[in-house]
Amino acid sequence: RGLDLSKLLTMQKPVYKTDLYRTKAQNHEIDKQIDNRMIEMAKRALDKQEPVEINLPVTNVDRTVGAMLSGEVAKRYGDDGLPHDTISVNMKGTAGQSFGAFLAKGVSLELTGEGNDYVGKGLSGGRIVIKPAPDFRGVTTQNIIVGNTVMYGATEGESFFAGVGGERFCVRNSGATAVVEGVGDHG
Prior knowledge:
By secondary structure, the chain is of the alpha/beta class. 16% of the residues lie in helices and 28% in strands. The protein has helices spanning 6-9, 34-41, 43-48, 67-77, and strands at 52-58, 87-95, 107-115, 124-131, 144-146, 156-165, 177-183. Strands 1, 2, 3, 4, 5, 6 and 7 form a 7-stranded parallel sheet that branches. The longest helix has 11 residues, at 67-77. The termini are far apart. The model has no long low-confidence stretch (mean pLDDT 93).
């Protein structure tokens, strides 16, 4: 009563020449994501709860690796997921952002290489292991192996990192376990 919100609720003219509404369809190329291959390779585990082992390379353009696979686990088994290590995925390379995001119970990702920012975001019962390549010649306690904001919002599960984690490590973690050799500033 008596409060004029018209200036807040009035559409302003755009400063830049951009559309304010969806004017064209977007193609996120979901059909090309690495998780599609993982889901296909994990059929026995998803359908019959039989253990499977998957070996794949990963690159920094592969983002949210494990999220779609975990969605398939959740569709079938809900929060209970699968028994630990039912789906074991071994990867080599440099993972893109959000490697292991929302990883469900029963899914394990082991990466030989390094991860980008947001590794294990929303971890939901899965297991993530990241270790350097065998030819790595540095000191793991002095070298970054995972980027910033690792395990942001994780609720359950575990992660093991053989190296230093970036800034904001385990921010808003509310139940997952993390083992890391070192944490950067603001960890």
